[in-house]
């Protein structure tokens, strides 16, 4: 299947309603024969083979372009890619947004987890969607029934296999509630739990592995460490396929890709002081910033950021970003979470802050923007 068409600005738009992460579980539901359970999820560009049980294995950080480039390190996954397809993450191309789209079947503008960090409306605080905020109820923040819960209510045995530390977390409740949660910290545990859950018919078992993403952030996707980790996750996927009966389908996807950001390509808003003018709160992440502006400052902020960044990033108002369909249809309650100004980086650029996000400055690999390297994800059936 061909890649989604890029825009003239060099970005790849999310393929909502066709081959985005939010379309994966509805496609699985149709393959299980219960597609009618998820209202409004009619036929799309993602068609999967019929089966009584599916295992969805999400490899955090494995973009389609990375798999193609480093196929030699992942021979099993590369063999699946020969007959597989390419889909897209949502916007931004970041874990919390993507995992919630997968678990809910909704676009980011509907489920509301629109970035790594975002403003809590009516406050001057950010919520970190990975670590959450004890003052924010995930059921209020993401009130829609998940696709997992709706399938479970219809008689599908739905299981999440993930690290123990994520059981009951804000992100898990927002994105994956309604499934049976099995804590598993090691590959062997994950495979054993997966085999047990996939014995049910009909069933959907979701398995998550974050190690490749962590390695890419720390060492970069061109590093020996990342290539070794890719080989390990490839072996894990192959072991999963071998452990499952032929009647169970293995579906391998990712939540986003990754790019290495050179130090010379980064702009620190605490060193270019004019970038702080009119910005009351800096959110998002290094590759995709939400700028929350002081009253009446939007136009001047856009002008300043465009002048300073030039071709390193696309700077848009919230209305322009929404009109381009970046988040899909945005509900009124989610709109205030979106920055007044959006900054999406080109190439390997990054917008960092020594004061607000010091940890990001230590990262090598990053993601969040709309480049093909970040947006395109593999959809592999084994």
TrEMBL record:
- Report any Pfam family annotated for this entry: Phosphodiest
Q: Drop me one GO molecular function for this one.
A: hydrolase activity
Q: Which InterPro entries match?
A: Alkaline_phosphatase_core_sf (IPR017850), Phosphodiest/P_Trfase (IPR002591)
Out of the domains of life, which is the source?
A: Bacteria
Protein name per the record? Alkaline phosphatase family protein
Taxon lineage: Bacteria, Bacillati, Actinomycetota, Actinomycetes, Propionibacteriales
């Amino acid at each position: 299947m061909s890649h989604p068409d890029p825009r003239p600005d060099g970005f790849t738009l999310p393929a909502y309603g066709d081959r985005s992460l939010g379309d994966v579980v509805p496609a699985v539901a149709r393959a299980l024969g219960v597609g009618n359970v998820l209202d409004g999820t009619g036929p799309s560009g993602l068609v999967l083979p019929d089966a009584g049980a599916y295992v969805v294995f999400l490899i955090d950080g494995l973009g389609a372009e990375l798999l193609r480039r480093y196929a030699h390190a992942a021979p099993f996954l590369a063999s699946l890619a020969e007959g597989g397809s390419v889909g897209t993450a949502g916007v931004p191309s970041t874990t919390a947004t993507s995992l919630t789209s997968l678990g809910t079947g909704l676009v980011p503008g509907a489920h509301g987890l629109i970035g790594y960090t975002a403003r809590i409306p009516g406050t001057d605080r950010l919520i970190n969607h990975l670590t959450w905020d004890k003052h924010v109820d995930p059921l209020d923040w993401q009130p829609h029934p998940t696709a997992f819960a709706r399938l479970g209510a219809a008689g599908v045995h739905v299981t999440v296999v993930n690290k123990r530390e994520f059981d009951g977390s804000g992100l898990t409740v927002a994105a994956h509630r309604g499934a049976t949660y099995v804590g598993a910290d090691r590959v062997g545990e994950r495979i054993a739990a997966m085999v047990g859950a996939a014995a049910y018919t009909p069933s959907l078992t979701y398995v998550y592995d974050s190690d490749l993403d962590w390695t890419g952030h720390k060492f970069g996707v061109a590093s020996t460490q990342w290539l070794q980790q890719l080989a390990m996750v490839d072996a894990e996927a192959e072991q999963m396929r071998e452990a499952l009966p032929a009647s169970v389908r293995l579906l391998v996807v990712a939540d986003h890709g990754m790019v290495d950001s050179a130090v010379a390509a980064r702009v620190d808003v605490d060193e270019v002081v004019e970038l702080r003018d009119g910005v009351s709160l800096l959110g998002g992440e290094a590759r995709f910033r939400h700028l929350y502006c002081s009253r009446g400052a939007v136009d001047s902020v856009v002008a300043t950021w465009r002048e300073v960044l030039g071709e390193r990033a696309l700077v848009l108002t919230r209305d322009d970003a929404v009109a381009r369909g970046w988040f899909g249809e945005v509900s009124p309650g989610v709109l205030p979470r979106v920055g007044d100004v959006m900054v999406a980086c080109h190439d390997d650029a990054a917008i960092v802050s020594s004061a607000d996000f010091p940890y990001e400055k230590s990262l090598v690999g990053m993601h969040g923007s709309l480049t093909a390297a970040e947006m395109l994800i593999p959809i592999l059936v084994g």
